[in-house]
Amino acid sequence: MKALVLYSSQTGRTKKFAEAIRSVLPENTDFLPMEQAPEHFDDYDIVFAGIWFLDYKLDSVSRSVLQRLNAKKVAIFATMHRDLYSDEISKNLRQAVDLLPPHVWVAGTHVSYVNESIARTPLGKQESLRLDTLQDFAANTYERVLTAA
Ligand SMILES: Cc1cc2nc3c(=O)[nH]c(=O)nc-3n(C[C@H](O)[C@H](O)[C@H](O)COP(=O)(O)O)c2cc1C
């Protein structure tokens, strides 16, 4: 079983979330920015895709990769500043899921909240991000895919 963690990040937060996911997955997990996404994804049983949103739209780098992300299974972890339980969150996630090629199985989705007041500033050295639920999500998703394989 092999996993890939891909991420798009401008201020560094989604990258930090991607690193947190990478740290709970097996040693042989690959880790790449979206800009370096491979051409084919046949080597992977699951791809974790880290995305973010700009004015209600999926960031452009993720948009170009998600639409050609021909992996068997994809788990999406998104960074957003909207209210975690709002309709906007579901609409944003749906936007990302709908971009994936039709046969892709979405193994899970997770949203990390970033306060809007700091969303434009680069990730600070002292800034602490909530990683525990994200890491649980990644470990559980990986385990489920492994069991089903
Ligand atoms: C100009 C701007 C617009 C944004 N628009 C949205 C949005 O429509 N919905 C949302 O949930 N988050 C929005 N965000 C929050 C980003 O998703 C958040 O800042 C995220 O941390 C960006 O990812 P990064 O830190 O990895 O660069 C916006 C952020 C910026 C700077």
Give a written overview of the molecule.
A hairpin with a 2-residue loop joins strand 3 and strand 4 (57-58). Strands 1, 2, 3, 4, 5 and 6 form a 6-stranded mixed β-sheet that branches. This protein has helices at residues 13-22, 60-66, 87-99, 132-148, and strands at residues 3-7, 30-33, 46-54, 57-58, 73-80, 105-113. Helices cover 32% and strands 25% of the residues. The chain has a single domain, classed as Flavodoxin domain (Rossmann fold). With 149 residues, it is an alpha/beta fold. The N and C termini lie close together (8 Å). The chain binds flavin mononucleotide (FMN). Residues 9-15, 52-56, 79-82, 114, 119-120 line the site of flavin mononucleotide.
List the helices and strands and how they pair.
Blueprint: E1 3-7, H1 13-22, E2 30-33, E3 46-54, E4 57-58, H2 60-66, E5 73-80, H3 87-99, E6 105-113, H4 132-148
In short:
It comes from Megasphaera hexanoica. One of its GO terms (molecular function) is electron transfer activity. With 149 residues, the chain is of the alpha/beta class.
Keywords:
6-stranded mixed β-sheet, 4 helices, globular
Number of helices: 4
Mean pLDDT: 95
Q: Low-confidence stretches at least 5 residues in length (pLDDT < 50)? A: none
Would you state the CATH class? Alpha Beta
Order of helices and strands: EHEEEHEHEH
CATH topology: Rossmann fold
Based on CA atoms alone, the radius of gyration comes out at: 14 Å
Structural class: alpha/beta
How would you sum up the major sheet? 6 strands, mixed
CATH homologous superfamily heading: Flavodoxin domain
**Helix-residue proportion:** 25-40%
Number of strands: 6
Hetero compounds: flavin mononucleotide
Q: What is the global morphology?
A: globular
